[in-house]
Amino acid sequence: MKRIITIAAALLVAGSAFAQQALVPGTGIVSPEINPDNSVTFRYYNPKAITVQVSGDFFPTERVTFEMDGRTRTIDNPGKADLVENNGLWTYTTPPLEGELYSYTLYVDGQKMMDPSNIYQNRDIATWTNIFTLSAEKGDKGWYYQVNDTPHGNVTKVWYDSPTLGKQRRMTVYTPAGYEKNTRTKYPVLYLLHGSGGDEDAWSDLGRAVQILDNLIAEGKAEPMILVMPNGVYFNQAAPGVAVNMFQPTISNSRSQSTVEVENSFPDIIKYIETNYRVRKDKNSRAVAGLSMGGRQSAALSRKYPDMFGYVGMFSGVVPPAVDAEGNDKALDAVFAAGPKLYWIGCGKTDGVMKNSLLLKEYCEDKGYPVTFYESEGGHIWRNWREYLTVFAQKIF
Description:
The structure is a single chain. It contains 9 helices and 20 strands. The protein is of the alpha+beta class. It folds into 2 domains: about 15-140, Immunoglobulins (Immunoglobulin-like, Sandwich); about 155-395, 3-Layer(aba) Sandwich (Rossmann fold). Strand 7 and strand 8 form a beta hairpin. The two termini are about 30 Å apart.
């Protein structure tokens, strides 16, 4: 079995030795440490602390309801556990965990903080958490999300002109292993869209898209493809820290956008990719998929351009049918009249998007349209979206 802690950035290798050595020089503290039974031990040294807790997505979730933007919203927060103190060293060990990428934070006397012994962190919108990847056996989820000894593709942060939006914009582009050498090969393209509050870094960092494709392609389970991860918030150029202006990303700001700007400007992205990369330019060599807001954008793009994408994937985000007096959704009917190779919907059982996902599924089935529906456990979470990408990528091209 191979157990490693990995940073959620493309192609950085962290060997299993990290589980056996201190990451804070001079302290001798290892945290987190993955144990032989796949339990995980967290350690934090602070003799002055009164309480120390760890909160992570390996705990049962706590459902929280709150008001935002005049609407009642419900989210699932990770649970917490108390660390036990012994001579100033606080520790907690989880039960054995399944292979997965996990996020966590510490709370010291009620104050949220990062684990000082773990340098591996991820940003989700405006929130930072520590991460670790656990793989109990080859082929489990954690194995697909980590860097393995396989051929690796390359990742580039690309600036392109968007005449439609009147600005330069940034996107992340993955080219598969061998792209530079196989100069006569043309590749299909998956356009992968993030959710509300996200940006062009979300799928490569939180989504582990690069590792997933590297591993699937190496196993022969997915076709070598180019992966394009654009910024789906039309009024932002790029992720925080690389855009011209400094801004604080929020869910509500990106939710407020109309999909019209994204739909109208998407041909700018395709034109840049098909001009600057060796790609196949037919409909059945293009796929579009996304999570949450990106799922709605994928659905909207397929309706606006029914002849543009042969494969459409909606992960926890759909555009439900808008039927007329005769019970027809003409835009959706046009999508299937164009004959997509795959129309794929994924949603968690407790996801608030399930209602609209089922409405779309039922409309397609009533019309006799081929639709693939994938149901998973859990709700509106990255754990599901990584799984959906892993499944969807094996079904395209």
